């Protein structure tokens, strides 16, 4: 046996000796955790408080109150142009609201062109409005499910993102959202998104800045059924 092989053997013998004398720390048996089961009101309150903690703006309203609350937000934020998806249920409602309130509504721009064409204009819009797939109370997050009508750019580029969340689609946990939403059956989009607040980064001189990698403001309308 050459010197190298002999040295290797001695090292391995020492390691085996140390291992045989070692005792692993005792750990309690891992038990299955109980998932939370909050009421609708508790889920709304929990999601609202967590999202507001990271600078999201939350508005609770009924179906009947939404139009008034929406117009108030548009006015307060001086939104002059709004990107929307006319073919969605939300888009149809916004379009009808525009038809009946021409003077108190922003210019509506329907996202009905190719990405290449929209890229030339999308940076000029004041805001966008999209639907959401649901929310997660445990983490205070929105679930966005980009589609042909509402592609990812809609919630990524405009400086103000208005998101509409139906209260009954707020889940307790992320795993519950996946299971009850049957994500495995409906087919995943290229990117499903969990969003808790506006874009923020501290890359520049370690100073917190909003709106560098996405919207500067996130406004959520939580609509509760009567």
TrEMBL record:
It comes from marine metagenome. Residues 45-223 form the LUD domain. Coiled coil: none annotated. SUPFAM superfamilies: NagB/RpiA/CoA transferase-like (SSF100950). Gene3D superfamilies: NagB/RpiA/CoA transferase-like (3.40.50.10420). Pfam families: LUD_dom. This is LUD domain-containing protein. InterPro entries: FTHF_cligase-like_sf, LUD_dom, NagB/RpiA_transferase-like.
